[in-house]
């Protein structure tokens, strides 16, 4: 999502607050406002993930489940998708069931696998997951820097807002993700220039991660990167 363009965070100076304009965007696109639907950032993460994901793969914050579906249908990885939003879990689970049914019957255009599908669990970040169980962890986090006065406290805010710094979900994620990674595992994190790209890299480096950029795209008001982190 080129979210900053839509929220006015790029300094448009309008009276409209971030919360209002994100909602307006959702309604202009005919999007429902309770579950984040695939956008530019989702596509970028999926593109990088299809090239990298292997073994046991976790997508944190799966939203509609679209990224998890791409990985489950286009790679040999076994995929678990999680979200804190129960509506997102429901939608992702429906998507997973549809994919599984299509792949078992051979009717799915999406996949050549006959066992494509993925598990969906409700979780707050990485809390319920055991140590060293995932080979790949994916996350397109809520990253919009949000003025506390403009927060509106619903599931779309949970999907979009990274708090005042934009990094209020990214930092606890980076604090804990090393714990769930199997030896040699990788993290693919979507990072926006709005969030403070260098700040995210420095935070990860201080927690023992080295990085490389898998894909990067520039939009009029932000640059989105998918950064691959590996433990040193
Ligand atoms: C930007 S959306 C990305 C959705 C989807 N992965 C995609 O790329 O289209 C961020 C997602 O993270 C979820 N989320 C926010 N806070 C979370 C948390 N503490 N634990 C798990 N998921 C969370 C939101 O509900 C939302 O679905």
From TrEMBL:
<dbReference type="GO" id="GO:0032259">
    <property type="term" value="P:methylation"/>
</dbReference>
<feature type="region of interest" description="Disordered">
    <location>
        <begin position="1"/>
        <end position="42"/>
    </location>
</feature>
<dbReference type="InterPro" id="IPR052190">
    <property type="entry name" value="Euk-Arch_PrmC-MTase"/>
</dbReference>
<dbReference type="InterPro" id="IPR004557">
    <property type="entry name" value="PrmC-related"/>
</dbReference>
<dbReference type="Pfam" id="PF13649">
    <property type="entry name" value="Methyltransf_25"/>
</dbReference>
<keyword id="KW-0949">S-adenosyl-L-methionine</keyword>
<feature type="compositionally biased region" description="Basic and acidic residues">
    <location>
        <begin position="21"/>
        <end position="31"/>
    </location>
</feature>
<keyword id="KW-0489">Methyltransferase</keyword>
<comment type="similarity">
    <text>Belongs to the eukaryotic/archaeal PrmC-related family.</text>
</comment>
<dbReference type="InterPro" id="IPR002052">
    <property type="entry name" value="DNA_methylase_N6_adenine_CS"/>
</dbReference>
<keyword id="KW-0808">Transferase</keyword>
<dbReference type="InterPro" id="IPR041698">
    <property type="entry name" value="Methyltransf_25"/>
</dbReference>
<dbReference type="InterPro" id="IPR029063">
    <property type="entry name" value="SAM-dependent_MTases_sf"/>
</dbReference>
<feature type="domain" description="Methyltransferase">
    <location>
        <begin position="58"/>
        <end position="131"/>
    </location>
</feature>
<protein>
    <submittedName>
        <fullName>HemK2/MTQ2 family protein methyltransferase</fullName>
        <ecNumber>2.1.1.-</ecNumber>
    </submittedName>
</protein>
<dbReference type="GO" id="GO:0008168">
    <property type="term" value="F:methyltransferase activity"/>
</dbReference>
């Amino acid at each position: 999502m080129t979210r900053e363009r839509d929220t006015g965070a790029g300094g448009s100076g309008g009276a409209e607050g971030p919360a209002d304009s994100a909602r307006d965007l959702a309604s202009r696109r005919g999007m429902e406002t309770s579950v984040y639907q695939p956008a530019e950032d989702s596509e970028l993460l999926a593109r990088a993930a299809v090239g990298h994901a292997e073994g046991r793969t976790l997508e944190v914050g799966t939203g509609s489940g679209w990224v998890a579906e791409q990985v489950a249908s286009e790679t040999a990885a076994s995929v678990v998708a999680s979200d804190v939003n129960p509506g997102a879990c429901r939608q992702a689970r429906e998507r997973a069931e549809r994919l599984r049914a299509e792949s078992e019957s051979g009717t799915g255009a999406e996949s050549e696998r006959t066992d494509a599908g993925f598990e969906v669990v409700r979780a707050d970040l990485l809390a319920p997951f055991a140590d060293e169980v995932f080979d790949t962890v994916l996350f397109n986090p809520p990253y919009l820097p949000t003025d506390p006065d403009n927060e509106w406290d619903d599931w779309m805010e949970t999907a979009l807002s990274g708090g005042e710094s934009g990094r209020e979900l990214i930092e606890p994620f980076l604090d804990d993700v090393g714990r769930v990674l199997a030896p040699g595992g990788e993290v693919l994190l979507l990072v926006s220039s709005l969030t403070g790209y260098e700040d995210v890299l420095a935070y990860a480096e201080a927690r023992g991660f080295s990085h490389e950029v898998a894909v990067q795209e520039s939009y009029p008001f932000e640059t989105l990167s998918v950064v691959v982190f590996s433990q040193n």
